[in-house]
Amino acid sequence: MKQYELLYALSGELTDAELKGVRSRIDGLISGAGATIKLNEHAGKVKLAYPIGAHRYGHYILVRFTAEPAQIAKLDADLRLDNGVIRHMIVNADEVMLTTVNLFVRPDEERAPETVAPVMAAPVAASPLSQEDIDKKIDELLTEASK
Questions:
Q1: Positive or negative, the Cα torsion across 12, 18, 20, 21?
Q2: Among 8, 105, 123, 131, which is disulfide-ready with 88 (CB 3.0 to 4.6 Å)?
Q3: What is the pLDDT of residue 22?
Q4: What CA–CA distance (Å, rounded) separates 26 from 61?
């Protein structure tokens, strides 16, 4: 058996009860394919990078599981046919470097303080130019350009 990761997006308009129902239905699809679920993590409601149909927000869910390679095509087809799933992607986690870094940062978790470099203002010219000085400079540049 190989390890796989499934990342899927559900409609942002789902209530908590509907979300639980769709997630349990998808977990059933995964288990029905003979897979064993190792991790099932909900990232929360996130604004999509671009609208998908009429959806502007979505719930992202990451599932890590082990399954036989022959079952992945059937699971992919079942997810494509499921109306609750906006987008999904299944990748072979054996080929991808798995790290312990949490992909989804929760708002209640502490973060390391970020260091920001101070922004320096551009130096301002001390004396403004008069209209005559500007005209002279323009004439000089035009005469040089015409030579």
A1: negative
A2: 8
A3: 93
A4: 11
Homologous superfamily in CATH for domain 2-92: Ribosomal protein S6/Translation elongation factor EF1B (3.30.70.60)
Calpha distance 94→87 (Å, rounded) = 22
DSSP assignment of 58-126 equals: EEEEEEEEEE-HHHHHHHHHHHHH-TTEEEEEEEETTTS---S--SS--TTS--PPPP-PPPPPPPPPS
The residue behind tokens 């869910």 is 61
pLDDT given for residue 105 in this prediction: 53
Give per-residue pLDDT as tens, 8-55: 999 999 989 999 999 999 999 999 888 999 999 998 888 999 999 889
Percent helix, percent strand, percent coil in the chain, to nearest 5: 30, 35, 35
> pLDDT at residue 117 above 70?
no
| 3-state class (DSSP) for residue 128 | coil
Specify whether the CB–CB gap between 1 and 66 falls below 8 A.
yes
Token digits for 13? Answer: 């308009």
The domain segmentation of the chain, as residue ranges, is 2-92
